[in-house]
């Protein structure tokens, strides 16, 4: 119920500001299970895709959305649960098996399952290598895979951007892919890779993205490492050159002038404009002036 309330509530805003267009909606079955395999450019993908598809779409979402604390965490948990998203642990191993079972269970109920084969959002708008979980789900549940290309959502709200831009977005849906020829081969890793690559090829054709044959998470890690190294190098150069980028040290305070009654010399101030310290040497004057201690240290003005 909450799913449809959210959809009805958001529809006017989505239509007004982003005017989403859709192609290929006829490829989505009116009933029965199917996998919607989509590229992943933005957080907004999980909003715009269900908006244009007439049927309810259940997504597998990362468990972080459901475990955050505080008011914000509860609001997120309520929203994602209400719109039909299921939490999954993406740490791998047994967690991957649990995610697989969750997806197969949704498909067994005759629902549409939305999944992002890349596993995470693209860091730069390119299409990255798919993970084989989508292929395993397709074989174990014996359903077709419908490729879906999100277009323009990266420009609206890439990862790291808080407020979305106002720009038109689109959804292009391809023909269903039937992998029944690989029935009973869900444990063959070469078959799983072949199916996944075929899905990613269709996504590349639909979206027009450049394809990169590495996992998106690895690309993110490499980008983060490179940025950290560049920042450290820049900070080191700035510190060596005395650039404002480095934190400046406090300027030394100017020394206080020596009191007249003391015979010691004041510390020499730094800087080119510093005054020459007074000469306290014992040279005998030749102009007949009184050089007694009283005369030298007499009161000013006398």
TrEMBL record:
UniProt keyword Phosphoprotein, yes or no: no
GO biological process, one term: phosphatidic acid biosynthetic process
Keywords (A to Z) from UniProt: Acyltransferase, Transferase
SUPFAM superfamilies reported for this sequence: Glycerol-3-phosphate (1)-acyltransferase
Top-level taxon in the UniProt lineage: Bacteria
Domain Phospholipid/glycerol acyltransferase: 34-153
Ranges of biased composition (kind: Low complexity): 240-252
InterPro entries, A to Z: Plipid/glycerol_acylTrfase (IPR002123)
A GO term from the CC aspect: plasma membrane
Pfam families hit by this protein: Acyltransferase
Transmembrane regions: none
Entry GO MF terms: 1-acylglycerol-3-phosphate O-acyltransferase activity
Annotated region described as Disordered, given as residue ranges: 240-302
Database matches in PANTHER family: 1-ACYL-SN-GLYCEROL-3-PHOSPHATE ACYLTRANSFERASE
Annotated protein name in UniProt: 1-acyl-sn-glycerol-3-phosphate acyltransferase
Organism per entry: Frankia nepalensis
